Amino acid sequence: MTWKLILTGKDAVPCEEKIHQFAEILKNEPGRASGIGLLTGKMGIVLFLYYYSLYAKRDEFKDIGFEIISEIFDQIEADEVPHTFCEGLAGVGWGLQHLADRGFVETDIDDILAELDGFSSEVLHRHIEERNFDFLQGATGIGLYLLNRNQLPAATGSLQLLLDRLEQNCIHGPGKTIHWETCIDPSDGTMGCNLSISHGMSAIVNLLTRMARIERFRRQAIPLIEGACRYLSKQQFAEQGRTSCFPGLISPKEQPIFSRLAWCYGDLGVALGFLRSSEATGNATWIDTARKIFAHSANRREPRNTGVHDACVCHGTAGIAHIFNRAFQQTGDKHAHDAALYWLEDTLNHAKYSDGYAGYKMRHPEIKGGWKPEANLLEGIAGIGLVFISAVSIIEPAWDKCLMIGS
Predict the structure, then answer these.
(1) CA-CA distance, 139 to 159, in Å (whole number)?
(2) What confidence score (pLDDT) does residue 30 get?
(3) pTM, 2 dp
């Protein structure tokens, strides 16, 4: 894909200024996240620094990235660290493989990742037996990492087991639909269907579309994709004028309610699942569905209709802007283009805190500290910076595959 600029000339200047400010903050110790993670820690900051070095043609930021990678491995050796894709070893492995694939890292990383591959396969098996198919914290995220390592027998075997268990654990419904259930209320063990890309079914569908590109998995993955898309289609609100096209959860305890506009939950993650499913199956119905969801979502801008409070990638304006940018780049849709520009401007407007990172603070529950500055990719300025680079340069944002946005 040839990536297109959506901001040029004087329109690009505010984003360009923020990108440089972020780089200066993140190269210094106080601006770095404490954990190792790809989405919530140091590895995501490394991703930003490498893309910034390419964007600004400043190799010293690549050198700083190397230093942080060394810190990550020192931390891994010294501490007991998480294993998840979001905050742990699987995400670190994905990040290193991505940097190598992009030519940012010239070292042969197979020896470095060999032990991690084996450990990730063991953890994947444990998650599978627990039926934990979560993306950020479970089997789907680790599966995404192992897909990058698919040429290795251990990874291939683990991916086959994951595919087998997804097939065995799916629930068949009317009209050849299938879905997967998870615990949606830990207080009483209520089971239901989470439609989100962060923790639910949209992530499973997205992973299956990536597995379907590999010949040995394709025949088994395609029927699961098709059945899941039929299920998702049936969950769409029938009434006109609904705030969202889909609910966030399907629960036996309550009627479905509207979902927020965000990467983590809501219509945009579902639309990405349909978009990738169209690519995998060749079914034009699914890309038409994705276009309609994006068109509806492009008109949602009032805070009371979006649930948006801050600028982060996870549940804020930057993530929305980037998904619309990616949708525009792939489909050429003008509504997506205009929505991307709107949400980029709104992201800039959130830089209003004198004690934030370049003006940015992110919203947390009061019990977790309330509004505070964040450095990481998912909820901080590293992610906002990557989104801005994608808007003002022709560098294709392959980093967004770690969020299942890019294909």
Answers:
(1) 10
(2) 53
(3) 0.96
Q: Collapse the DSSP code of 231 into the 3-class scheme (helix H, G, I; strand E, B; otherwise coil) and give the result.
A: helix
DSSP 394: S
Cα distance from N-terminal residue to C-terminal residue, the chain: 10
State the DSSP code for 182. E
Strands annotated E in 260-326: none
Alpha-carbon Rg of the chain, whole angstroms? 20
Residue among 293, 133, 120 nearest 208 (CA): 133
Please name the residue that has the structure tokens 């439609």: 195
CB-facing half-sphere around the CA of 241: CA atoms within 13 A: 0
| Distance, C-alpha 70 to centroid of its chain | 25
Give the Cα separation of 358 and 351 in Å (integer): 7
Residue 111 and residue 187: Cα distance in Å, rounded? 44
Question: By C-alpha distance, which of 85, 96, 76, 77 is closest to 37?
Answer: 85
User: If you average pLDDT over residues 256-275, what whole number do you get?
Assistant: 94
For 51-93, give the DSSP string. HHHHHHT-HHHHHHHHHHHHHHHHHHHHS----STTTSHHHHH
Q: Give 272-291 as a DSSP string.
A: HHHHHHHHHH--HHHHHHHH
**CB–CB of 270/289 below 8 Å?**
no
- Indicate the DSSP class of residue 398: G
Instruction: Give the Cα separation of 316 and 355 in Å (integer).
Output: 19
Consecutive H or E run containing 388? helix 381-392
Q: Which residues fall within 8 angstroms of residue 402, CB to CB, at 6 or more apart?
A: 38, 39, 47, 91, 94, 95, 98, 144, 377
Backbone φ, ψ for residue 173 (5° rounding): -130, -175
CB 180 within 8 A of CB 133: yes
Length of the chain: 407
Reported as a pLDDT band with limits 50, 70 and 90, residue 219 is very high
What residues does 357 pair with on adjacent strands? 360
